[in-house]
Amino acid sequence: MNRFAFIIHPLDCSDVARKFHFARYMPDTLLERTLKILPPVKISPITGIQSPSAATEGFFVSCLLTARQMMSLPTPFVLNKIIQTARLAEKLGAQVVGLGAFTKVIGDAGITIAKNLNIPVTTGNSYTVATTLEGAKKAAILMGHDLKKARIVVVGATGSIGSVCALSLARDVNHLTLIGRNEAKLHVLADRILFETGLAANVTSNIKSILRTADLVITVTSSADAIIEPEDLKAGAVICDVARPRDVSRRVVEKRDDVLVIEGGLVEVPGDVNFNFNFGFPPRTAYACMAETMILALEGRLESYTLGRDLTLKQVEEMHKLGRKHGFKLAGWRSFEKPVTEEEIHRIRQKAMIKVS
């Protein structure tokens, strides 16, 4: 049996307090100073993963830096903390390790981390893209959108996940807009899309005006703060938020009952799975980036599968096939830690239709 590990970290100080009770009584500034000097820790074992042809087990290990610290502290310091965490995984017997949340975006997206280990590393981005697109398309159709006629927007389009999402969507849609901070890079991506698919994608850095016309939004930036607010969206819009921390403000679901916000990359893991750690999902449900690490262990592909920022459609499609082979499947939808049923999507669609009329 091949074993894996997955690196997690607290998004903010409240996450630390959920796991370590002493943190509840510390001011955030003091707690973050403490986290800087603490070593990595094993969080929990993961057991019971069983596909039709193989089994695997693993564990969560944590780099105890918050998202804010990962983005603000010197990159070499943060990378060294992540490498220490991955070395703990090695010592515990992992044969492949996955990078979660901000550990996958620091520096060169896993390349330096892999060079400092004796086991392979993956960001999980290939399977994240595959499941994100599958879930977003299905949700858009349930909301009444015809993908050929709908206006599609990818926010953070020049990133490793965003660019491949845009390339894949370009094969199925007629109206695609790419949003990012670097317009030069956006134009390079648009030229590639035109060459490979024949679709002329629009390019802009003006996120607010474009969002107000969008039917389906895939957002996958590395921003530490929310960038999409309730007033930015049209009635009936579907927003698939792949970013962690989220790109979509919680105010959107509080103020707008006529738009659908879903999280990208959630899958059901095969077997009698026990994560022994509550990260807000139903039983047997995990992020797709976690699942990619499990799939590599089940398949015996002990290799650094998704590293760096040059993700390819070939990788995405292969990982999607391997996921199906081992019994992984889309786990429906979630929105801010709550499940979203097809019945709820129907209600949101009805409210959007009333507002539009």
TrEMBL record:
Pfam family of the protein (one): Shikimate_DH
Superkingdom of the organism of origin: Bacteria
The organism's taxonomic lineage, starting at the top: Bacteria, Bacillati, Bacillota, Clostridia, Eubacteriales
Signal peptide interval: none
Domain Quinate/shikimate 5-dehydrogenase/glutamyl-tRNA reductase: 145-255
Protein name: Polysaccharide biosynthesis protein CapD
Cited SUPFAM superfamilies: NAD(P)-binding Rossmann-fold domains
Cross-referenced InterPro entries: NAD(P)-bd_dom_sf, Shikm_DH/Glu-tRNA_Rdtase
